[in-house]
Structure formats: C-alpha cells, structure tokens
Specification:
The chain is mainly α. It contains 4 helices and no strands.
Length: 98
C-alpha cells in the first residue's frame, strides 16, 4: 500500500537485471530501462500491429540510413538491434501511437 506521507522516490526496476533477456545481459548497464532490451522481433511485431498493410520497413531504412536487407535481418533476430535501427523503430512507433 502506498503511504501518502512517504517522501522517498518510488523504486525503479530499471536496474533489475533478472528481467533482462539472457541474450542481452552482456549489454546491460545500470540505469538502463527494460524497454532498451526489446528485440528486433519485438519491434517487428509491434510495428506490424500498428502499421498493417504499410511498408514500414522502408520507413525504417530511411530513418536509420541502413540498407533494407540489413534492417530486415535485424528485425528477424531475437537480439537487441543496433542503436540506429532501435532508434528508428522507437521513432516510428512514437509517431504511430500518439
């Protein structure tokens, strides 16, 4: 139960490495949010759900500056995509979820 008189900040699970997928634990840094560990497959499923029937991969390649084959490969893998692809995914998702 939350105590309204408690002035301590809420405890964040951002440092809880137990919730990080095994394949991403080598990349874990304290203070990183769990969302930073979404895999390429996770992004692909989420983008397909929010942008059905659209060529969202083409939009990702434009944003990230990567070739289409590279982008597709990273979205098929069960690993954290490179920073530029991850940011492109987050940018596109943020624009569609508004």
């Amino acid at each position: 139960m939350n105590d309204p008189l408690n002035t301590e900040p809420p405890q964040s699970d951002a440092r809880d490495i137990s919730r990080v997928p095994d394949h991403a634990k080598n990349n874990f840094r304290p203070g990183m949010a769990e969302r930073e560990f979404r895999t390429g497959r996770h992004f692909a499923l989420e983008l397909a759900q929010h942008l059905p029937g659209q060529d969202w991969i083409a939009r990702l390649t434009e944003i990230s500056g990567r070739r289409r084959d590279e982008t597709e490969w990273h979205l098929q893998e069960d690993m954290v995509p490179p920073e530029d692809i991850r940011r492109a995914c987050e940018t596109l998702l943020a624009a569609t979820i508004k």
